[in-house]
Amino acid sequence: MPESVLYDLAEGVATITLNRPDAMNSLTVETKTALREAVERARDDTAARAVILTGAGRAFCAGQDLREHAANLEAGRGLDGTVRDHYNPLVLALAELPKPVVAAVNGVAAGAGASLAFACDLRIASEKASFATAFTRIGLAPDSGMSWTLQRLVGRAKALELLLLAEPVRAAEALELGLVNRVVPADRLGAEARELAARLAAGPTAAYGAVKAAVDHASAGDLASALRKEAELQEACAATADHANATKAFLQKEQPVFDGR
Question: Structure pTM?
Answer without folding.
Answer: 0.95
